[in-house]
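Q: For a teaching session next week I want to show students how multiple molecules come together into a single three-dimensional assembly. I've collected the sequence lines for a complex. Could you give me the predicted structure tokens for the whole thing so I can convert them for display?
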Amino acid sequence: MAAGNVNSFNVSTNHNNIVNIITETDTEEDQILQWLSPLEPQRRHQAVRTGRLDGIGNWVLEANKFKEWSGGKDDSVEPLLFCCGSPGVGKTYLR
Amino acid sequence: MIDRLCDQAGRKDIAVVGLYCDFLSHQEQSTTNVLGAILKQLSRRGEIPKDIREAFQKAREEFGGRGLQLFDQVEIMKKITASLSRVFICIDALDESTPQHRQELLQSLQEIVRGSRNTRIFLTGRPHIEDEIMRRFSKVVRIHLSPTQGDIESYLEMKLSRDTDPYAMDDELRADIMRVIPEKTSKM
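A: Of course. Below is the structure for the complete assembly, covering every listed component.
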């Protein structure tokens, strides 16, 4: 009976240790991510993605300006692309 | 835009990161938060980059976990971008951030681009912020966005097909909507 108690105690200790170890390795990654910034921009990105209508505004992405900017050699292109337009025109929803 | 670049990239050594300024409160959109969010996305691509891990450990030992300063964030960004073949940083609705945050962010982006030419920056916003951008980047590629007739028609068709009250619609009303709205918007 006593041995059984010890055993079960050991088992549960080991179990707890294992759980703790896993949590700790997880949290270092999480801690770093949280430490870097509290923001979670991918959540908003998912919402935008869901609300987007395929095909709209594709002309922008087919434009030579865009193709050169995104695919051109580093020293031959200007690094900054500014897409401007009035509010509600669909800047956020470009695919 | 982020998805398009991701599809196009499809390679391990090309990173696409970005964020939307419009949903952030003024406090949240501090430049260190924004650059931190970009570093966070770069860290989620796989292994956390060595420079970030080291900075974290140093901060934990020395200052009890104090966050990175802007200067350090920029330095780390330069190192990470240099280790990749190309990094796209996309920032949407930059006009929604406060002028002070915008200045700081543009300055930081300028430093990152200077440090590593393989960085590409994509910004969206209303036209009035172009002067501020030009102060930091003497030359920019500009695309002025206004929806085409086809874009507006597709959008209307999508909206009509999702009408929650389809019984109120008839062919005549539908034809009027499809005629009048594109006409009006083309004059905007």
